[in-house]
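lol ok so funny story. i was supposed to be doing the assay writeup but got distracted and ended up predicting the structure for this chain instead. priorities right. anyway since i did it might as well share w the group, maybe its usefull for someone
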Amino acid sequence: MCGRFTQAYTWAEVEAYLNLLGPPRNLRPRYNIAPTTTIDVLRREEGGRLLVPMRWGLVPSWWKKPLKELPATFNARAETVAEKPMFRTAFKSRRCIIPASGFFEWTGRAGGKIPHYFSRVDGRPLAFAGLWESWRDLEAADTVLSATIIVGPANSWMTSFHDRMPILLAPAHFDEWLSGPDPTALLTPPPDDFLREWLVSTRVNRSGVGDDDPTMIDQISNPNSFGPDL
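and the output, tada:
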């Protein structure tokens, strides 16, 4: 799964990588993004690729209940995304790319979870395969744009830490993912040498802590220095 990640890049970095449409703007770096908060999402529009703020946790257009009753939809499983009612319509026509600087996974048992940070070996941004939706909140008379990250089986290297991981897209596949007729073949793990990993502070274990703090992704070499698990 992918339950926490980072978006800490400059406009120049993400614009060059994703070939974005629109004038440059300041982007707020974030180091502990949790579900239901607002994230940067790339979607394809008539004029090109646009970076749009969306809720992390997809709300299908047909949802009739209050938002608080929505089940967890911040991840969609690659194996079933084309068939599950929550995601199948978006998979057909509303695919997106969610840029990231890295993501977190945990090892160890409950009460002593140790967080690991994963990013590209070359330091460039990551491109998560995602889906987006537009939902009308009748209670608030507002339109909510939302997105989910697609996750699949881990590659051999990642299985040392977790059995699943985000689907990561290569630039050569961006157009096919965003507008191709059937991008199912892209729902595969990256090569084993694509990512790097290091240990970080257990402060990241608590959602809402340190989202603006770049030290959240600092490497920690001594597990005993983590302090109590939060």
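The CA atoms of residues 41 and 73 lie 16 Å apart. The longest helix spans residues 11-18.
back to the writeup now i swear
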